[in-house]
Amino acid sequence: MELLGTAVLALTAAFCAVSLKKYSPEIAVVLAVAAGVVLLLPILSQTWPIVRTLQEMSDRIGLDASYGVVLVKTVGVCFLCQFTADACRDAGQSALASKVEWAAKVTVLLLALPLMENILQVTAGWMSHS
Fold this sequence. Notes:
By secondary structure, the chain is mainly alpha-helical. 89% of the residues lie in helices and 0% in strands. The chain starts with a helix and ends with a helix.
């Protein structure tokens, strides 16, 4: 979906959700979440060229593929949790949104642990040779 189509659909869904909110808040939330999913799917399909390009670049320079995997997983976690937290906020559940954001932060740290270990090993090796 082109950016203009995304913007039009998002604004239309937002207008409808706001209009419905006074009469049926539950349906307004469902509409907003459904519109978010509809908007997100084409956007996600556009990420594959980015992933392929990152893979090709890391292959060309001889970078360990695990770094790229961690990067892609981390971005995926961030996108998923942001979408979920926003949906929770739209439903008036800011405490749940906050927990989702905390879960994302912990997950990103867990994903980064192997990279941090590699960096520390390289740094320790470099320091011992100095």
